Amino acid sequence: MPDVEAELRERAAADGVEFFFAMFVDMHGKPCAKMVPVEALDVLLGGGAGFAGFAAGPMGQTPADPDMIAVPDVASYALAPWVPGLAVLQCDIYVEGEPWPFSPRVILKNAVEKAEARGLRYNVGIEPEYFLVRRLADGGIELADPLDRAEAPCYDAKGLTRMYDHLTRVSKYMNQLGWANYANDHEDANGQFEQNFRYADAVTSADRLIFFRYMVHSLAHDAGMAATFMPKPFGNLTGNGLHLHSSLWDAATGEELFADGGDSRGLGLSKMAYHFIGGLIEHARSLVAVTCPTVNSYKRMGVGPPTSGATWAPAYASYGGNNRSQMLRIPEGGRIENRACDGAANPYLALTAQLAAGLDGIDRVLDPGEPNEDNLFLLSEGEVARRGITAMPPTLLHAVEELVKDDVLRAGLGKTRDGDYIDYFAKVKRDEFFAWHSRVSAWEVDRYLTLF
Q: What mean pLDDT do residues 162-191 have?
């Protein structure tokens, strides 16, 4: 057996590492870290880094609880190329020697281990979208590039060029990290970009997304800008998606289990893949509480033809071929793109819930029916209802109420010392919804102040 800790020490020495961030995320996906000097690496590897969990965010702790211990996963080692001498280690949280069931990374690892016990490897590709903005003196935001005002800015070469320095730095660093960046583009909204990296196993992809967000935020800040992955930062512009490309593979042989060149439906998918799709559709209304987990998320969803100023977010639980009006798009054989996920998603929780839903479809041999070939943005609500197509929940509260009724996702997200994690998640999200709902907005004042 290789001595992975010795290999980490050798690699860190070769890379000139002086400090480590022992990093984990809370329920919201916020990265938390302690900075550990390389001279204390043995202490970090031997006992982990201690955190007061109640102060870190929603992690299932009170001020009376013992420390959370962040135990680094040496396989997650990643240099921060823009900060000489810094490396990041993603961590699993333990409390009193036991894995902490409120830790999102622990939750995903438990789900992945159960899938691998069935001989299944869960691979995921992730497409992160974000805006580059600047803060205004009054607390608002504006686009960082004041010239990015085209009516149809998607793939705009000029807009891409004006942000060339930022985008190329991110691309070069991804490739230095071994992520295989393969595309960088100006997205559908003014000021919006997407940078892609190769798929990997679910835990590795989730780790990379957390690091990617941290890196983009840091580089934007260094350039006098701010980056936001917020689902809908501008009311008149397309929101930030986080499309998830899923596939299952044989854990022993590496055989691709979602691909079938002889697919009678012409999408290049196996029967197992169609059953996985059936599960995602079956659980879509509850799944979105995890994949679209904020009040702001539901301002991104809507019906209408997508242009810059509308939306590409799915409004219905459906699937089709290379059709971007569907929740589930099949861009090519062997993988399934879930478009009902946005930039606010905690990737560990989102992938856990998605895997649970898909495996339920496999276990129950669910058939999603024939692929939908229509542009669902243009179908009337009556026609959608006639076809039996399910609409997405209109708000976070509606989605959470669907979530708590879903026994499959309840089991998938696991148990805690206080009950099911899903109930803890739901309480945090209900509180979030009502905190927003209690605020009086400028829209309400404008509409109602002298109406009556």
A: 97
Tell me the residue range of the domain where 11 lies: 4-100
Last residue of a domain, one of 100, 124, 159: 100
* Residue 33, CA distances (Å) to 79, 89, 101, 105, 137 in order: 15, 9, 19, 14, 29
Which pLDDT tens digit goes with each residue over 209-228?
A: 999 999 999 999 999 999 99
pLDDT tens column, 5-18: 889 999 999 999 99
Could you tell me if residue 245 is inside a domain? Answer: yes
Pair 87, 141 in one domain: no
If one counts the domains in the chain, the total is 2
In a shared domain, residues 161 and 231 = yes
Tell me how far apart the alpha carbons of residues 92 and 72 are, in angstroms, rounded to a whole number: 6
Closest CA to 74 of 207, 173, 179: 207
Burial of 156 (0-12, 13-18, 19+ CB in 10 A): middle
Task: For residue 288, give the DSSP letter.
Answer: H
Q: Give the whole-angstrom CA distance, residue 250 versus residue 359.
A: 14
pLDDT band at residue 302 under the 50/70/90 scheme = low
Co-location of 262 and 345 in the same domain: yes
